[in-house]
Design brief:
Elements (H helix, E strand, L loop, with lengths): L3 E13 L10 H16 L6 E13 L3 E5 L6 H8 L7 E6 L3 E4 L12 H11 L4 H15 L14 H12 L6 E5 L7 H16 L3 E5 L3 H7 L2 E6 L2 E6 L1 H11 L6 E3 L15 E8 L6 E2 L5 E9 L3 E12 L4 E6 L4 E3 L4 E8 L7 E12 L5 E15 L19 E2 L4 E2 L3 E2 L2
Parallel strand pairs: 3-7, 3-8, 5-6, 6-7, 12-19, 15-20
Antiparallel strand pairs: 1-2, 1-4, 8-9, 10-11, 11-13, 13-17, 14-15, 14-16, 14-18, 17-21, 17-22, 18-19
Helix pairs in contact: 3-4, 3-5, 4-5
Length: 422
Amino acid sequence: MSEVVMKVSDIGKKYDIISSEEKHDTFISVLFNSFKLRKKKGNNIDANGFWALNDINFTVNKGDRIGIIGHNGAGKSTLLKVFSRITTPTKGTIEVNGRISSLLEVGTGFHPELTGRENIYLNGSILGMTRDEIENKFNDIVDFSEISGFLDTPVKRYSSGMYVKLAFAVAAHLDPDILIVDEVLAVGDMKFQQKCLGRMEDISGEGRTVLYVSHNMNTVQQLCNRVIVLDHGKVIFDGNVDDGIKVYMDNNKKMEMFNNLKNIERPKDINLNRRIVMDSVELVNKVNCTYNSEEKVFFELSYSAIEEISDVYLRIVVLYSDDTPAGMGTTRIPISVKKGTTSKSIFEFDNTNLAPGTYLVKLVLYKVNEFGTDELLDVVPSAFGFEMNSKSGDTNNLEWTHRYWGHIKFNNLTIQEPKVLI
């Protein structure tokens, strides 16, 4: 029978949401506001409260490698902070049998003025290692970090990659019974990421337990033997890795035949010259959003011109449901529109070479300027979604799994003659 090292019973974490009227800058005001919140709780008033976690129940066995996945805001990091005793749960209990170490942010505690050698001792102490432990593992840490030639250089002169390598090398040589890891394997180059994953596998092979949060499904599949899927603070799946990833993918995007694009938030990190904007998109010649390997995707896009503009192209970027790219395509024939008009065009792209699974589509309207660079006019990150099933009766198709998917460049989009509505 497996040894239970952690038992989570009815864990919940509630945060009080303070309105702008309740915010205060002075110490007395903060105390007064805290008193009001306590009074609300005493009266069982749940207003302005947000449950980041609620009714979380599961057990962790010795040697488990558990991936905790879910969309942004699902409660993953909050759960790890509760496990790490960084924050206390509002309700419920956690029974732990063994020593816990957390790796929630690589490099926390590094001092830029100190050398790599000095920071190994400093960071190791912060992470809970004794000086004797650090000295016994010092050479292994340096070898793992691959930066032995710069050990006596202040880390402020390190590149970001060198910084990350040293930080993870220290954290990777902790000796806990339960290691909690939050997204840190997403850093560094591919070779070093694989080295880190190998180290994590070694840790679990020694009978220790790993709880790992990531949005990278490839690393979850490589490292974990079990997956817990969170959604809005609740556990919606606990079991097989591939089945859990499919639940996460399918839960990540609700697919609709028609989407109003006006209300979808545009990216804030890029400049858009919105001389033409996308209004809506609709899948055509379909009764649902599911395709097989013999069907192409046709969609009708409605767009409005703020001013007269020509030589506008549409690019589609097809993404897996975890927002990693699967492929892209672009129109050969440009769009030209007059000021103040709204038009509709039907586009087609060849999706038949996609593996079974759930996909999102990002739409980009752009114009190539005189300098040969793209002028972004409008970008909709998740314009619509669709699902690919295997061909009916096909026995040679790949079973759905993220590890088989690769990057695909689609054929160029075809476009029907635009139809002006206004």
